[in-house]
Design a protein that fits this description.
alpha+beta; 393 residues; 5 strands; five-stranded mixed β-sheet; Heat Shock Protein 90; 10% strand; disordered N terminus; 65% helix
């Protein structure tokens, strides 16, 4: 699955490089050229008289000029207004130079696609209005010069063309919303990473401050014990007790410093994983044998709940036999009051399964949640429920 997607992406990238560097057409895809070529071939066959040899006005000149009404659509996504102008001008030229001839089978789909490209690629309302006028002119010219259409057909073919333009506007709006959402998610991830780094820095600063105060207190205690031992020159017992106190305090201080240094060394310096990274986790663990399903309104949750949800799925994946022929299904449901995690797959041996499920149960219990695991027909289904109220608290 991943290999096929990579191959498809790689092929698309190579084609974009070819059209950009060699042809100078960065936004022209294989589908654009294929569509324009198909329409042009159909239009040339029709205008040359191969299909209707007795039809008037067909011939070589008509076959050449009709390409002005179809071939430019290959560049519609790159130059929507320019293509609309060329198509309208090409239709007028065919009208004046050739006259009445059936061309609608290929020319109408070309103008429909041009209208769609105008709506999809342009945001300026004035340019969209200009494009709408141009495609309307193109359709009207075709209706006046094509024997199969007639003038009256323009009354409903123009609205149909504008409907394609409106569909392009909807796609444009959807693409812009998706881009804004991706940008906002990227900003939220950056802010989350920054907050994590600030939290780590704050924890370290607090630990250092606590250690500084502790060391001052311990050094003061040792200094006071040394002063007591020095003053008790006549009582050997008191001096010995003072030096024992210094020794005990020094050892306790060293132990505390080792613990603090160890905690600082083991403290996380990178952002903790979140639910949005589950697809990568499942892909790494199961390869092409895993499937992730997201239900509900996906949204950011409290960091502790995100981390626990990720770790729970990680624990449960360790209980699944990745080599089994059945797929591993992981579902994440964002309910209004809770987060539901479901992991289904063929289990491995019972000993390791119990340990991992116990670890997942412990994490769920911390948030006031629950874990239910059932074995049926050789497949283990584990359902985890994590309340959002507890996570927010």
């Amino acid at each position: 699955m991943i290999t096929n997607r990579w191959r498809a992406t790689g092929g698309r990238v190579r084609w974009q490089r070819l059209t950009s560097r060699v042809l100078g057409l960065p936004d022209v895809g294989i589908a654009d050229l294929a569509f324009a070529t198909l329409l042009t071939v159909l239009a040339v066959i029709s205008a040359s008289g191969l299909t209707h040899p007795h039809e008037a006005n067909t011939g070589t000149a008509a076959a050449l000029l009709v390409t002005l009404m179809t071939a430019p659509v290959a560049l519609a996504r790159r130059y929507p207004i320019g293509v609309a102008v060329v198509l309208a001008a090409g239709c007028a030229i065919n009208w004046l130079a050739i006259g009445h001839l059936v061309r609608c089978g290929a020319a109408l789909p070309a103008v429909f696609y041009a209208g769609f490209a105008v709506g999809m690629k342009l945001a300026d309302r004035r340019l969209v209005a200009l494009g709408a006028s141009l495609v309307a002119v193109d359709v009207i010219c075709q209706c006046f010069t094509d024997p199969r259409l007639g003038r009256g057909v323009a009354l409903y073919f123009v609205p149909v063309t504008w409907a394609f333009l409106g569909a392009g506007r909807l796609v444009n709006s959807r693409n812009r919303s998706a881009a804004e959402l991706r940008e906002r998610n990227a900003e939220l991830r950056e802010q989350r990473d920054l907050n994590t780094q600030l939290a780590v820095a704050a924890d370290r600063a607090r630990i250092v401050a606590d250690l500084d105060g502790y060391l001052l207190g311990q050094v003061g205690a040792m200094s006071a014990a040394a002063s007591t031992g020095q003053a008790s020159t006549t009582a050997a017992g008191e001096s010995e007790a003072a030096f024992h106190a210094i020794q005990h305090t020094g050892r306790e201080t060293l132990k505390r410093m080792r613990d603090v240094v160890s905690s600082l060394r083991d403290a996380p310096t990178e952002p903790q994983p979140v639910l949005a990274q589950l697809d990568r986790l499942i892909s790494e663990v199961t390869g092409a044998n895993g499937r992730l399903t997201v239900l509900g309104d996906a949204r950011l949750l409290p960091p502790a709940l995100e981390l626990s949800g990720y770790r729970i799925v990680e624990h449960l994946l360790d209980t699944i036999d990745i080599g089994a022929p059945n797929e591993v299904d992981v579902a994440v449901e964002f309910a209004p009051d809770c987060l539901r995690l479901t992991v289904v797959g063929t289990p491995i041996r019972a000993g390791r399964t119990r340990a991992r499920i116990a670890a997942a149960t412990q994490r769920a219990t911390v948030h006031g949640g629950s874990l239910v695991s059932e074995l049926a027909d050789g497949r283990r289904t584990t359902l985890v429920r994590l309340p959002l109220v507890s996570g927010n608290a």
